[in-house]
Amino acid sequence: VGQITEPSYFRGLSAKLSLPALAGSAVLLLYNWKLLHLTADTQQKSQQLEDANKELLQLDELKSNFLSNISHELKAPLVSTKGYLDFILTQKMGPLNAKQEKGLKVARDNLNLLSRLISSLLDFSRLSGGAMKLRRRPYALKELIESCVESFHLQTRQKGKELNFVMNIPDSAPGVYIDADRIREVFMNLLDNADKFTATKGCITIEVKETIAEDEFVQVCVGDSGIGIPKEHLTKIFQRFYQVDSSSTRKYGGTGLGLAIVKEILEAHGCTIRVESEVGKGSNFIFILPIHRSFHPFMPDQSHLAFVKPQRTKLIEVIEDDPHITAVIKALLEEEGFAVIPAPTGIDALRIAKQHKPDLITLDIYLPDMNGFDLLSELHRDPQTQPIPVIVLSILLDKEKGLSLGAADYLEKPVDAEKLLDVVKRVSASLEGVPNMVDQIKQQFPSTQS
Amino acid sequence: MIGKILIIDDDPTLVDFLKLLLESEGYDTLDAADGISGLDLIHQQNPELVLLDYMMPNMHGLDVLRTVSRKYESSFVVMLTGKGSEEVAVECMKAGALDYVVKPFDNDRLLSVVRNAFRLRELELEKRKLHEQMQRNMEFWNEKRGEITRLLARLQSIASGAEAASVINEIRKLIE
Fold first, then answer.
1. Nearest to A348, CA basis, from A323, A377, A320
2. Which residues is A138 bridged to in the sheet?
3. Which residues pair with A212 in a beta bridge?
4. B residues 44..63 contacting A (CB < 8 A)
5. DSSP calls for A124-142
6. The pLDDT value given to residue A297
7. Residues in chain A within 8 Å Cβ distance of B130
């Protein structure tokens, strides 16, 4: 009586295990079970998170694609509209009276504005995907800036606005390691801004300043003498869709994306931008670009040889009278990281060769003012230009003659893109080495030349 | 008529405009709304120049371009691209386009590209003709050289003396 009768299924167990041990196992079992549950829970949660993340990424991509598609769709109807307007304005479809002409010009100008706005929307949709792919190559900073300024002049000339332009770029401006298309956007956006907020007769400056951070970066400044930016807006102007004065959209145009694009491009290069400004006096946008210091077998560490400038991008002079062929060759060579300087006539060609001492020349034999073969011998007669290798590009099959006059190579036109690049790379690679270095030092100390 | 141009673009308004612009300069025009019918027209009409849109439904402009440059040697292509990037331009030039125009374009720019394309086409065809001629000349010469070599071998077997040998040698050098 009063004896606790164990249930029969425990009887066998209790013979082997003491009660405390049994309790311990039970707790452990419970703990394990809970842990198992918890793990399953965590796994489920992380799966959910992962799914949510995937969805977000998809949505983001969808958004970028949507923006990009819609920009393209918006742009397509502009193409024929612009075409018709321009064509009607040439009066080839019949004469226009003054009122009609004025109205059509307003329509055309606004259409051009709309087209630019859509382009910047498109740019932004490309950038804001966060996946900005940079195609970085060594590039001559001076030439990049000069070509930006040239396109900028073309744009402003049409508007008939007079601006003073000051460029302060030393010849020793270093080579930079950048995505040239993108950095070109940076300059064009900053120049557009400077132009927009500067009245006629105002002044725009571009300056390449000193290098910083142990010559890792070079400072560049784009300034203007325009209306300036009030202090309270200075920190916000790089934000998307931000405009100092909401009425400025109407007054000055623009999407409020220009500076946001500039900042994103520079940040993708690991660079920063800041602004200094005073209302009524103007603004200075100061940013940095990474310097390219190429490895040179004879100069293991260039930083100790302060008098040797960092090896610049190879400069190629393209002597060719057809602007379209020049454009093609230029695009091809720039794609490969060469800097290109075009020369449309024989006279220009000689002047440019002496002045800029390009690393390589491509020469078309048919020139408006001179026979290409004569030009070739002229280049080889002059001690200043004699060492520059010349690649002849011609529709004439006169390889023998070209080579006998000292051409480094001879290619038939129309030139095969791959072939041209091969030859240019081969010839320019053969230039590397001691003589090049000696030349560089000579350039630094012109007095030793005489 | 100063030349026949085929316009391949899926935007009918733009096609209409391009026809107006090019015809006002005296060109003959044809048009197609997509790559496949465009290729058909090239096959039938053999236009000198093709203005080809880069982005089109059902056959990408680049594929059309590659087909034209491979199969229709006397039709040359100028690309119309919607994107302003140089990458696209270089891609097109590498695939055999003569030139490219970015949309929206200036009418004058388009016309000057077209004029230049016709000029380049002439030169290219001339070059091909000369090249063929040269090839034929080379073949002819190679044949003759074979004969001369055989004759020299016969001559060597029948002529004797140092002078004969030196003459044979000189002729050998000449034809090498």
1. A320
2. A177
3. A217
4. 55
5. HHHHHTS------EEEEHH
6. 27
7. 397
